[in-house]
């Protein structure tokens, strides 16, 4: 009893589909090799699976490029021209994007502004103000994190060389506020007269941000 005829349509089950691909791929490669040996034909066979794996068969003592070049010569066509044109168009697009980005960087540093209109200058100003705000907010968050770390370290070690200054007091104008809240900053007391400090004296101290 012979095998039943298989209906030629897409196999929905992914496992069965992959098994069928592997079996028939090997069969095609075997036929291509037989054709190359028996008939002294140049064969180039390229297969790409559904998961983008490439399998190929090339006749012995030849390359795919040689076969393509010979095919182009016989058919009097250029297989690469359309591909080259697409690559060239993509390259030009990338060059334009790079040029615009470089110009934007120069403008953000105060250069290349002569060709901008009032609206463009105003938009650039607003963008830079927003960027400065983001940087400033990030800076205050970092300061707040460092301050919390110093406060915890103070609580554990009770280090007399560190002190906390509340910017709600007389130092408010010096250290500023972040997000409308009172911020604490850790300062280290540096002795301006080390000789007194070394001998146990108190001397005078410089107040420096730790």
UniProtKB/TrEMBL annotation:
Q: Known PROSITE patterns for this protein?
A: K_BOX (PS51297), MADS_BOX_1 (PS00350), MADS_BOX_2 (PS50066)
**Keyword set, alphabetical order:** DNA-binding, Nucleus, Transcription, Transcription regulation
Q: Which SUPFAM superfamilies match?
A: SRF-like
What's the superkingdom here?
Answer: Eukaryota
K-box domain location is: 84-174
Q: Which PANTHER family match?
A: SERUM RESPONSE FACTOR HOMOLOG
* Name the UniProt record assigns to this protein: Uncharacterized protein
